[in-house]
Design goal:
32% of the residues lie in helices and 33% in strands. The chain is an alpha+beta fold. The strands form five sheets. The protein has a six-stranded antiparallel beta barrel with strand order 4-11-14-13-12-15. The relative contact order is 0.15.
Length: 425
């Protein structure tokens, strides 16, 4: 056999040895489900539930976190607002019955006080009295040189002499014409003219006399006298100073004179005590610089009206001061000679604000806003003072108020500490 025959035989043998597998038809999952496949489906469902639960938990946690943040933000804002509003402690004024002698602060004033101004123009020629000088009524205080007034007076006197001469001539002419009329030498009209000229000359003389008297009065003002007995407290002039008549400016005031005996003492009596005050009532003045001494006086008048701003009655007491011991303008206390049984209102001294316009108490209203209320202070008891007007027992008064407090400012009222006594109860 040749080579071609051998190759053909080998291919035939190989084809006979190779056998191809038969095609197997597997049943569908619906017809015969696999146990492994069912287990895989259950695992997938469990995994889905787990993932969903995790997502839900994350959502809930996020919502809780957001709500917490919002709550913290609101709380922070509320805390910031609370811290921005000052916190204060308050007390109520203490009210109690007073059985003491009525003692009130008073202001001492001179019985008379007169600023002295110039009544004429000129220059200060000389002055005779200085501050502290005790004066009697009519004492010469200063001389003013008045050259212009002097010249006017000389001219007025010369004019009067001229008019007097004219008056004499007019009188003679009138008498002569009246005599001529008796003999019918002149007409009645001519006589009337002469009489009228004489009457006019009389009127001119009267006007001239008045002008001379006016200038003489002006010239008399060159001498400045004390209007009443007292003490000279101011001297605002010196030699050579220009003086203008009628100038009421304080810088042009020549002198200031006060009467120191007796003295006027003014007292603001609280409305509560006002019914006990009457005209003629005795009162005693005391001053710390004269410890142990009392100066007796009496009530001479009252204003007969209660001041609505302070709820007080203005009363005047006249106190004799022959030795000049008590000085006008000084502070004093007045003891009224009557035991007065009336309610008394007091507050601690550390509740007061001392402002230029007077003492103030910081009161908190129902809306927790501050009102700086003016108060009238009476007796001083050291740690507390008597309130004569401006407060009520129900008012909430701030303790240790800050100087920066303003009217209408909101505040937080702090709760009283345990063991702290409540004022006014």
């Amino acid at each position: 056999m040749g080579t071609r025959g051998v190759g053909a035989g080998l291919r035939k043998e190989l084809q006979e040895d190779v056998s191809y597998p038969e095609v197997i038809n597997f049943p569908s999952e619906t017809e015969h489900p696999s146990p492994n496949r069912s287990s895989q489906n259950n695992s997938a469902r469990k995994a889905g539930w787990i993932v969903g639960g995790v997502i839900l938990i994350l959502l809930i946690a996020g919502a809780v976190t957001i709500a917490s943040k919002l709550g913290e933000k609101k709380a922070l804002a509320a805390e910031t607002e609370r811290l921005a509003t000052p916190s204060v402690s308050v007390i109520h004024p203490t009210q109690e019955q007073s059985h003491e002698e009525l003692v009130l602060p008073a202001t001492v004033q001179a019985y008379k006080e007169s600023p002295i101004y110039a009544r004429t123009n000129g220059y200060v020629l000389r002055w005779y009295k200085d501050i502290g000088s005790h004066l009697n009524k009519g004492d010469l205080l200063a001389d003013i040189d008045t050259p212009e007034v002097d010249q006017e007076l000389m001219q007025a006197r010369a004019t009067r002499q001229q008019i007097q001469a004219q008056l004499g001539l007019a009188k003679s002419s009138a008498e002569r014409w009246q005599n001529l009329r008796k003999s019918d030498s002149v007409s009645q009209q001519e006589v009337d003219q002469q009489v009228s000229g004489y009457q006019q000359a009389q009127a001119n003389l009267a006007a001239s006399d008045a002008n001379v008297r006016r200038l003489e009065q002006m010239e008399s003002f060159k001498h400045v006298y004390a209007p009443f007995s007292g003490v000279l407290t101011k001297r605002n002039i010196d030699v050579g100073a220009l003086i203008n008549a009628g100038n009421t400016g304080s810088d042009k005031q020549l002198f200031d004179v006060v009467q120191v005996d007796p003295l006027r003492v003014y007292v603001n009596v609280p409305q509560t005590y006002s019914p006990a005050i009457y005209i003629g009532m005795k009162a005693f003045l005391e001053q710390r610089e004269y410890s142990g001494q009392r100066f007796e006086g009496k009530v001479v008048r009252t204003s007969e009206v209660i001041d609505p701003s302070t709820r007080t009655l203005l009363s005047e007491i006249d106190v004799p001061n022959p030795g000049g011991k008590i000085l006008p303008g000084s502070y004093a206390q007045v003891h009224f000679a009557a035991k007065i049984d009336a309610p008394r209102l007091t507050i601690p001294i550390n509740t007061l604000l001392f402002r230029p316009e007077g003492p103030r108490a910081a009161v908190v209203d129902a809306e927790k806003k501050v009102h700086l209320r003016p108060v009238s202070i009476g007796r001083d008891y050291g740690s507390s003072v008597e309130v004569m007007g401006g407060l009520q027992p129900s008012d909430q008064v701030i303790v240790n108020p800050a100087d920066s407090l303003e009217d209408g400012q909101p505040v937080n009222v702090a709760a009283p500490k345990a063991g702290t006594p409540k004022q006014g109860s």
